[in-house]
Amino acid sequence: MNDHRHQGRTSAGSTGIDPGEHRVLADPSRVAVLQTLRRSDRPMDVREIAEVVGLHTNTVRSHLALLTDRGLVLAAPEDRDRPGRPRTLYTPADDDDRRDYRMLAEALVAHLSAMDGDQAEAAVRAGQGQGERLVDSRGPRPPVDADTALAVLTDFLRETGFRPRPSPDGTRVDLHHCPFRELAEAAPDVVCGVHLGMMRGALRRMRAPLETVRLRPFATPGHCVAELRETEVEDPPGS
Question: 179 or 174: which carries more pLDDT confidence?
């Protein structure tokens, strides 16, 4: 299927407006479908989207077809290990900012991979600095409790491009839809080290009673697992 977005933007001249994309997003119901996917922390099927937006599944399916054709939404079969036909799951496509982020990530991976010494440790250190900067720029004022820290960490991971799903007991975060999957498969020590460091740096900067013990890359096909545990802090919240 052709991706018309870039063609439309090019033909629109210096305005940067894609007329075709504008027409697709002129329908409020279609925008609601797209926004539902962007707000979700996981891929969704047609039935789930229809329940959120209050539309018939056939209507949602037609909206998704147009959004997919314009490259605004991605469709993929569900990963499943049980019999039966897999569902089609939908996620929002990467935006321009995230494509820029991926390009920077590729440069970082190339730089760290060329370094002498422990590349994985260097990646963790680089990620820690990024996690600290994220908290400094828009995180809560430390110290925070474990629940708040987990919620903030989940938001940061979602902004990075993951579809994070924290466990009810707060001991792990399942990371679906890795935004750098190809890079991670080629250089897991570096890419996953950066993500591990980012989580550690953010939690440390928040002075939260929570730490990331380890990150298990590709624990199952399609997702990684960040393992967490509670810890003590010198200055507990409210002191």
Answer: 174
Least confident of 92-96, 166-170, 171-175, 201-205: 92-96
Report the candidate in 72, 71, 76 with the shortest Cα–Cα distance to residue 89: 76
Instruction: Round to whole Å and give the CA distance between 172 and 166.
Output: 6
Amino acid identity, position 91: T
Residue written as tokens 């996917």?
37
124 token code pair: 């963790």
CA–CA dist 137, 132 (Å, integer): 9
d(Cα 7, Cα 4) in Å, to the nearest integer?
Answer: 5
Angle of CA points 63, 65, 183, to nearest 5°: 115
* Amino acid found at 43: P
Instruction: Kindly report which listed range (15-19, 55-59, 70-74, 76-80) carries the lowest average pLDDT score.
Output: 15-19
Domains and CATH numbers, the chain: 5-92 (1.10.10.10), 96-230 (3.30.1380.20)
How far, in Å, are 18, 54, 157, 172 from residue 169 at the CA level?
45, 31, 18, 8
Query: Is pLDDT above 50 for 17?
Result: no
Question: To 5 degrees, how large is the angle CA 82–CA 85–CA 91?
Answer: 95
Helix (H, G, I), strand (E, B) or coil at 152: helix
Helix ranges restricted to H, 14-83 = 19-24, 28-39, 46-53, 57-69
Q: Is the peptide bond before 143 cis (omega within 30 degrees of 0)?
A: yes
